[in-house]
Amino acid sequence: MKLSVTPDVFKLAQVFTISRGSRTEARVLTVRIDDGGFTGWGECVPYARYGETLESVTAEIEGLNLPISREVLQSALPAGAARNAVDCALWDLAAKRAGKPVWQLAGLAAPLPEITAYTLSLDTPDKMRAQAAQNAFRPLLKTKLGGGPQDVARIEAVRAGAPDARIIVDANEGWTPELYGDLAPVLLALGVEMVEQPLPAGEDDALLDLARPLPVCADESCHDRASLAALRGKYDIVNIKLDKTGGLTEALALRDAALAEGYKVMVGCMVGSSLAMAPAVLVAQGAAFTDLDGPLLLAEDRDPPLYFDDDGVHPAESALWG
Question: Mind telling me the catalytic residues?
Fold first, then answer.
């Protein structure tokens, strides 16, 4: 078994801004695992919010003892980007060896397309209205918010630009409990269905004492199954991202555990290519919210890319992954 890690850069179609900053490209790591007959691959997006860099994640991956199985990998690396890329590469390798798709190997039902959110970058209300109008044909829009006094104006502008779209919002840890209390009834009146991570992950105990008329989704507060115990009484939905769970293996387990505990499930992504989204499509089957729009934000992508149409994001072709 041979393993290689290479950095790849994909230009974005436009500047993408959240409350933490802006970017013009997606920087990812591609892992390839070759067993002498077949090669499986996977992608991860190291995320500075979790203390990850391209260099640190590469070092984690290159430090693995080979050969390695998915089972051994779960304890060899912590949940995070490094384990994600290797885990997904091992699933892809297993599918190629077996001549069967990953969904069959995992004992899942045949996947179908899933409607995905399309993310509107954080900007002024006027510019966000223009973004919404350009994407008003999409059934579900996700609006980035910044925690400032313009958040209500931003949502009002998005609603004006896309009067028929469903809307969810992402605060990226930028609110306070008081701001949630002020904004929740306004956003509900505008048809907003939920908010992702309104409070900082380390300060979300305040949610225990808040009425939550606007459902709250855990993103930065939820990584893997070990996160669930600390979420009780605070959140209504959990956002599963493979770069947080450390791969498809834990993502599927987290989905089942979260549903069993009564949470709704959202399946999200970092800004990456179709290779990163492909395994997440399997986790997203039947999810309350799917947010796998990474490829839609890119000016360039893998070949072949995932296919998106009015039915949503389609399962990957075997030539891409799985």
Answer: 144, 241
